[in-house]
Design a protein that fits this description.
It contains 33 helices and 25 strands. With 1240 residues, it is an alpha/beta fold.
């Protein structure tokens, strides 16, 4: 690798230090620009002009003025005037606090994302990026792209987002441009070839250059199939801008709170204010008009103070603080639970109480969450920006609780394993008939995989050569005792010469061990040479109509020396068509069979069916080396770079899988040879490094009898069958009778089926270079293996459980329709009618191929989705599979989901820089590490240079609230959704309870005005209730245990919020006002009457004390204060009783006892105790006690509780009927995808 990147004298490469400095500078420039425009300048002004703020300030000034008014007049001093002064000052302080909180939250939310990114930039600035390789070879994982970049004259592997302008990168055919790049060694203006991000590097890119290699050779560069490009843009700029500029929708809870506030501020407050003012004006003017002049000084209190008292509970002064506290606790709980789930190694288990025949919610894991960790996370959010997760930007708990769609925006390492796993083996039996064996991975087994067919051992003679090939042709290190994160990952050096499918990097040596080979049986083999062949001019390249299937045909071969038999063996694997062109016969388990047209047709049929089923295929072949070249005898095991061969020209061939009619002989051989090409035989380019030059070799076929002697492993290798029986030596192919290799076929170029080194007598010596060309010809076909991207463990069950919870799982596939449906079946998604929509524009891609999809009238192209929903049907909102997707179409579809009220959670690879913008615009995003990363956490202190993959993952996933490790179960997501739903539901009930209590306070005061009573509560009592007692009871709601059906209920969408607003208002009136307000007013009137003058009968009048309020004597003021405190305790008692029924929205207290909630029980007891202490402190100097209150007041106070409970249960029963109706309607809508053209 290093030699391939040796710097030529004519070009100066960037150093790693200089490139890192450019990277940091580019990131700083984008962040600085964003910070200048992040925080809106008029946030403070907008808040101060809110109606509730203006009213509060106005009333605060009025209360302060009342104190001055009382002080200025003659007469007994009224204690409540001092209280009014304190109330006014407190209100002004509250307004200042809310103003500070509001502006601070806007500021922190605006800087939250940039602070997270800035933290990563600072870590890079301080520690640098490591110049060591996370991987020493390119990976074929699409979700973890790596680019070969030349820095310090050395080729390094870096994620695309770490490239900078001026970097020099190497691309091979089939690679994808990581950013805007330009061919480095253009010699004229016509050769200034640029590639755009995401563009595939195909051989036809150099149409304007006669020989692009010569352009590089002019600069002294020969890079074994790679071409040099220079980066003309810095990708990190676009990534940071995508993360910072995208706008997320407001959460469901934020919309609901806004709607409630708007309702109160625009309607309720003004209605109550007008009604209260009218009542007090009439009360002042019409009641005892003869005393109007003597009561003139009472007008101030009646027209100002009383209006404030009745409105104060309705003004949302405490909402910002309560919302901040509850949100911070919920977020801390979610984050700590998520971390505990990822670190725990125990399994997820189903609830034991759920019947096996019922629809069971997702299994959970019982983990211990540290309260100290929760407290630290809670304080971090209150005090500063916690960049470990985006609490403010994403609305973590609100978005998770209301998620309706989970979008998987990529596959490898996200919802499936990073690399495909083997699914089937294709072999040819003695009769020329295919034999297919199913294979499955099972990590619990010693070898990690097993055959599903019970009679697989009957085919051992067929499997032995393949098993040895699988064990030898790998460098995963598992059998050498080496350990690495991805232990069964082949280095795939061939990947540096061009793109190959990811199955070529999947090591299935465990299958060889399952066949019976052990690592001891490999000790007799020594690798002497490695050959890599690429065919960029192969017909399969030009016939690849869709980029999803684009691949440069290639094969890799290794030559081994068998010490036991003193022979050389060659094992190959690679592209099926290229392998077939190199094979003249096949191994049938007993002897060699001629590769006739019917046999090849069956092989190609399997290959074609596998490809359209979204499977990847690798073919395997073998040959003995009967006339080894002297180079194989030199030294020990091969340690030099592989020998690179390039198939630069291929004769014309018919379309793949189409076979012209030919007459067949009894032996199945083709009766007609392939016609010779007029353009000559194909040429090969031998590139063994930077210092060798191209060599053209005549590959003319010699149709002669094959005289080679097959010796596959000699006799000493004795693999052991899993059952314990000894397996015979893998020498059956060696002992097979020599068979003719056959004549060139009509289907393809057959000249490579015959090799010069098989001739018994060589007319002239073969040189080393020519030997390697000939060695890969004339092979024997062994088998093919099909690979599939298996979903992660339990992924299918997770999708089913999400559907049960009303969350639609949507997979965006880049593959065409058929391939997408094939993988969707593995996920358990529906693939029949109205189940797949293609997002590529008209005229791009294969389009709809299924007849029922064509008849369904589904839209094609994301640009047609909105008009289809508006004019035809809403099927696009109900499907779970989208095909032919590109990043822009995925983003647009996410927007469409959000426009129709869906709360979207995106999950995708943390190493895929194309995901960043989609992460940023989704309601909430969860990144998944497709590989094991030494990942630094946001905000964590680092020592030493940072891992390139970790840095890339941090930038790419910067908009994500959470990050999922590669080996963490997807059930972790369902469990945090369960926790979020519980916390959000508890918080919503607690907030509704708080609002109901405040509404009850206002209603009680208004009722007392109507009944001509003195103020039933003082201002400081209202403040005490709003900021101490009611929040204390409401906090207890947050800790209520989970409901069993929390993950079987349908979530509400982010649209048409609170459509039944007035139904809930009527519930409030019935539950909070009907009994508590009436009882409190009656008790207050009784206590005031009894304590002031017990001899007088109770009657409604404006003057209970015989004098105006501002002229009350000390004794009368003590009576009024005692009555107010006693009534306040009764009110608190009723609110605590209501809270017991309010813990659950629709469940009866007889079904779900409130005593199960220890936190609520503790908070309720503390609330009653605090109110008792408040009562006692307020009455320290009072001559009255509880014994002075007559028994009728106690009977009414406690007897009302008996009436309160049935009302609560009746209202909840009615609400439950509406809730069940909503759930049924929502589930019907969720499970229905009928469209305009759907079958009946």
């Amino acid at each position: 690798m290093q030699s391939a990147g040796a710097a030529p004298r004519q070009y100066i490469y960037l150093s790693h230090a200089e490139a890192t400095a450019r990277f940091v500078h580019a990131a700083d420039a984008v962040l600085a620009e964003q910070r200048r425009r992040a925080v809106p300048a008029n946030a403070l002004q907008k808040y101060l002009l809110r109606a509730d703020v203006l009213l509060t300030v106005l009333f605060a000034l009025g209360l302060v003025g009342f104190y001055g008014f009382v002080r200025a007049r003659n007469g007994p001093f009224q204690w409540r005037a001092t209280g009014a002064l304190a109330e006014g000052v407190i209100l002004l302080l509250v307004v200042a606090l809310n103003c500070w909180l509001h502006v601070r939250e806007i500021h922190l939310a605006a800087l939250e994302m940039s602070s997270r990114i800035q933290n990563t930039v600072e870590l890079v600035r301080k520690n640098g990026i490591s110049d060591s390789h996370d991987f020493r070879f390119p990976t074929n994982i699409l979700t973890a792209p790596l680019t070969r970049v030349v820095r310090d004259g050395i080729v390094r592997l870096l994620p695309p987002c770490l490239l900078v302008e001026g970097d020099v990168i190497l691309l091979a055919y089939g690679d994808t441009a990581p950013c805007r790049i330009r061919f480095l060694f253009a010699t004229s203006a016509a050769q200034l070839i640029e590639m755009q991000p995401g563009q595939i590097f195909k051989p036809d890119l150099f149409a304007s250059i006669a020989d692009p290699r010569r352009a590089q050779e002019a600069f002294g560069i020969l890079a074994s199939g790679a071409f040099y490009f220079t980066v003309i843009d810095t990708p990190i700029k676009g990534i940071i801008q995508s993360a910072l500029n995208a706008q997320r929708p407001e959460t469901v809870i934020a919309h609901q709170l806004e709607l409630v506030d708007r309702l109160f501020l625009t309607r309720v407050i003004w209605i109550v204010f007008g009604a209260s003012l009218l009542v007090n004006v009439l009360r002042f003017v019409l009641v005892s008009p003869s005393t109007l002049s003597s009561r003139a000084d009472q007008a101030y209190e009646m027209f100002v103070n009383l209006q404030f008292y009745v409105l104060f509970p309705l003004i949302p002064l405490s909402h910002p603080t309560l919302f901040l506290v509850s949100r911070s606790y919920g977020n801390a709980q979610i984050v700590c639970l998520f971390e505990a789930l990822q670190s725990s190694k125990t399994a997820f288990e189903d609830d034991e109480d759920v019947d096996e025949f019922d629809a069971a919610p997702a299994p959970t894991k019982d983990v211990a969450v540290s309260w100290a960790a929760i407290w630290r996370k809670f304080l971090d959010q209150i005090i500063r920006i916690d960049i470990s997760f985006l609490a403010r930007t994403t609305g973590l708990i609100e978005s998770l609780a209301n998620t309706t769609v989970i979008c998987a925006i990529d596959r490898e390492g996200t919802i499936s394993s990073p690399l495909p796993s083997v699914e089937q083996l294709f072999l040819i039996g003695e009769a020329g008939e295919p034999i297919i064996l199913d294979v499955t991975e099972d990590r619990t087994l010693p070898n990690g995989m097993r055959f599903e067919d019970r009679d697989w051992s009957h085919h051992l003679s067929l499997l032995k050569p393949l098993g040895l090939s699988l064990m030898l042709n790998t460098d995963c290190g598992a059998h050498a005792g080496r350990r690495r994160n991805e232990s069964h990952l082949k280095s795939g050096q061939i990947r540096v010469h061009g793109t190959v499918n990811s199955a070529r990097q999947t090591c299935i040596c465990g299958l060889g061990a399952e066949i019976g080979f052990s690592k001891e049986s490999l000790s007799q083999f020594a690798c002497k040479a490695s050959i890599e062949l690429f065919a960029p001019s192969h017909p399969a390249v030009s016939q690849s109509a869709f980029d999803y299937h684009f691949e440069i045909p290639s094969l890799s071969s290794r030559i081994f020396y068998d010490a036991a038999s003193a022979s050389f063996q060659l094992f190959s694997e690679g592209h099926a068509e290229l392998i077939l062109e190199s094979c003249g016969d096949y191994w049938n388990g007993r002897e060699l069979g001629q590769m006739a047209e019917p046999v090849e047709s069956k092989i190609l049929d399997f290959y074609q069916n596998a490809v359209i089923s979204d499977l990847q295929v690798v073919a395997f072949a073998y040959r003995p080396i009967n006339n080894p070249a002297p180079v194989l005898f030199q030294g020990g095991a091969a340690s030099v770079s592989p020998i690179y061969l390039e198939h630069t020209e291929t004769p014309p061939a018919p379309k793949p899988f189409e076979f012209p009619e030919t007459s067949q002989s009894d032996g199945g051989a083709s009766s007609q040879a392939h016609p010779a090409s007029s353009s000559g035989e194909p040429g090969y380019v031998d590139q063994t490094g930077l210092h060798d030059h191209s060599t053209d070799v005549n590959m003319a076929a010699t149709p002669s009898q094959d005289g080679r002697q097959h010796q596959l492993a000699g006799h000493p290798a004795q693999p052991t069958h899993p059952s314990g029986d000894s397996v015979t030596a893998v020498s059956d192919v060696s002992n097979a009778a020599p068979q003719p290799t056959g004549r060139p076929r009509r289907q393809a170029n057959r000249s490579r089926a015959v090799s010069k080194i098989d001739s018994p007598v060589l007319e002239e010596p073969i040189g080393d270079n020519e030997f390697f060309h000939e060695a890969i010809k004339g092979q024997t076909f062994l088998a093919m293996a099909s690979y599939t991207f298996a979903p992660k463990p339990n992924m299918v069950d997770v999708i089913e459980d999400l559907a049960l919870a009303g969350i639609r799982f949507v997979y965006f596939s880049s593959a065409p329709e058929r391939e997408s449906k094939a993988y969707a079946e593995h996920l358990g998604l529906e693939v029949d009618w109205n189940c797949c929509i293609i997002l590529s524009p008209e005229g791009v891609g294969p389009g709809y191929l299924a007849i029922h999809d064509m008849k369904a009238g589904l839209p094609k192209g994301v640009e047609n989705i909105r008009s289809h929903i508006a004019n035809v049907d809403d099927v696009p909102l109900h499907v779970s599979l989208f095909a032919e997707c590109q990043p822009y179409s995925i983003r647009e579809m996410v927007r469409i989901f959000q426009e129709h009220g869906e709360v979207v959670c995106c999950i995708g690879s943390s190493l895929n820089d194309l995901n960043t913008e989609c992460f940023a615009m989704a309601d909430i995003s969860i990144s998944v590490d497709p590989l094991h990363l030494a990942r630094h956490r946001h905000g964590a202190a680092q020592i030493g240079p940072l891992s390139p993959l970790a840095v890339a993952a941090s930038f790419n996933s910067s908009p994500c609230a959470l990050n999922l490790n590669v080996d963490t179960s997807m059930y972790s997501i369902t469990q945090i959704i369960r926790e979020a739903r519980t916390l959000a539901g508890n918080g919503r009930q607690g907030f509704a309870f708080y609002m109901g209590c405040q509404f009850a306070l206002s209603a009680t005061l208004f009722l007392s005005y109507c009944l001509l009573l003195p103020p039933i509560f003082t201002g400081y009592q209202l403040i005490f209730m709003a900021w101490v007692l009611l929040p204390l009871v409401s906090i207890g709601f947050m800790f209520s245990p989970h409901l069993p059906d929390v993950m079987t209920n349908m979530p509400v969408k982010n649209a048409e919020h609170l459509r039944d607003m007035w139904r809930f208002v009527s519930y409030f009136c019935l539950r909070f006002c009907l009994v508590p307000s009436v009882v409190c007013v009656i008790v207050f009137a009784l206590v005031v009457t009894e304590l002031h003058d017990p001899d007088k009968p109770f009657m409604l009048k404006d003057d209970y004390f015989g004098v105006p309020w501002l002229r009350l004597a000390d004794q009368d003021q003590r009576v009024l204060l005692f009555a107010q405190n006693f009534t306040l305790y009764v009110f608190v008692l009723y609110m605590v009783a209501i809270s017991a029924t309010y813990l659950r929205r629709v469940e009866s207290i007889f079904e779900d006892s409130p005593l199960k909630s220890t936190a609520w029980l503790l908070c309720s007891v503390i609330c009653l105790a605090v109110q008792a202490a408040f009562f006692a402190i307020s009455q320290i100097s009072s001559p009255f006690g509880l014994g002075d209150v007559s028994w009728p007041a106690y009977v009414i106070a406690f007897g009302g509780l008996l009436v309160l409970l049935p009302i609560q249960e009746l209202v909840k029963r009615h609400d439950k009927l509406e809730w069940v109706r909503f759930q049924k309607r929502s589930k019907l809508e969720f499970n229905t995808k009928l469209g305009m053209y759907s079958p009946i």
